[in-house]
């Protein structure tokens, strides 16, 4: 037993040795403390501007903004010297560029001001990077406070949160450091890294701009080219190297580029500010190739491409990112098939998406949206969609739906694919492992939509043991009216009373269900959640339902159609909540009748069950 504990002790020491060596390297004489900095000091910066070669640039220290970040968090203000950065300005993609004085690390270039005539920037002190590297790499997946929720994006009602720090230069700062007087009242914020999107549609890029407006990214379409045109296999990461973080790879590519501030063994740190502020994460790290600087009056940036995946980003913190070279994180495979049976059109896309509660549904949505919009030219279409989700330990989840219209098919398809993934990843019951997502879309020109205009029964008084014929009338757009019929058998033991007959589209049917039995749609375990995900009816169907106007109950997600009055009293009383609730009606029958149209509308009427009826 003693040997076992000794073995465990030394195993832990080995696991922690990477953190200890990195911290020791940053806390020795290799760091220049903020307290030793003085205005006028000359420093040297490192960054890549062309290809993979690390260049140097000269820097003058202007002053320090004390407690500007958070309490006991300072920002160093400096100015780049030299014609190159005088012309190009401080560029997006330089985040993390290490700054040195006499060989000692001062910190990471990280902040800037808009519309600056001079290349003035802010530096995250090296001591703050220690905190990022010291963080243990835990298997914790958290949402991002910088992004709107996926539900808000689905409803197109989001407003991104503004939680990235912005630092105004105060009169006190200017008094202590006269070189900052020209910046008084202006606001400094993290440099925005280029977020290079390849293969994404213009509609997706427009939404990218809205979703990422308060992050440290500038979404840019296809400006990085493709890594297949450049050999990045020999590019190693070191202080000053360009580093990429890849979120989507394959037929679609999405990556952000910054700079490595520090490397010790296989542990690196960079950026000097957060990406999504997700805390612990598992994002693929890549090397990167710089094509050219892009000078811009509003905000200059580096045109870059993500190269080979070389490791894993494990920390996304307020003062920078950190990760490990070597092990590569697993991504989520996504296959998309777009077909048109009438023209034999077929297009296949394959890619992988980063695994994250916050980012997987978002990037899956953008990818499917772009695949559909890229494959369909302008015009009116109708599309049948099938989404298959493979999960470890569970049968495949299959969701089918139909869309029609002139615009918005890509948005609708993207949401139908991403919403169940978001529901699964954010569930509160147990962790899930989604192994594969497959999306199949079959479209045809000229969308066929039909409205339910009426409903009819062949008798409005029925006897128990008999049947009733229910007919829904549908009118297509500029077409002839047609009918869908459902014959329902009335149980022989049904008591006299009123039945409500409905013929509705899928969305209206779901709204009726929510009002009828609200607790039915509140799962109490993962199995019930999966059942609800697959319960959604297709948009091309007429949903016939028959309800009896009698109270029922739902207890822990299970519907109980016939319960005694005493239980109704308990569930509707004030002594319990959450376990169950009262249903306002009891469903007697349901019939789903698919059509070749996208159905809209809802109609209902009442019939009487009467044992004396003929």
Helix content: 10-25%
The main sheet comes to:
6 strands, antiparallel, barrel
Could you name the ranges where pLDDT drops below 50 across 5 or more consecutive residues?
1-23, 157-165
Number of helices: 11
Shape: elongated
Structural class: alpha+beta
Distance between the termini: 85 Å
- Rounded to an integer in angstroms, the radius of gyration calculated over CA atoms is 30 Å
Mean pLDDT: 83
Strand order of the largest sheet: 1-2-3-6-5-4
Overall tally of domains: 3
Total strand segments: 33
Strand residues, percent? 35-45%
Describe the protein.
With 614 residues, this protein is α+β, with helices and mostly antiparallel strands. It has 3 domains: 1-328, no CATH class; 332-445, Ubiquitin-like (UB roll) (Roll), CATH 3.10.20; 450-609, no CATH class. Helices cover 20% and strands 42% of the residues. The chain is built from 11 helices and 33 strands. Helix 1 (2-27) packs antiparallel against helix 3 and helix 7 runs antiparallel to helix 8. The protein is elongated. The protein starts with a helix and ends in a 5-residue tail after the last strand.
Key features of this structure:
Ubiquitin-like (UB roll), 3 domains, 614 residues, 6-stranded antiparallel barrel, 6-stranded antiparallel β-barrel, alpha+beta, 20% helix
Short description:
The chain is an alpha+beta fold and 614 residues long. A hairpin with a 5-residue loop joins strand 19 and strand 20 (397-405). The chain is elongated.
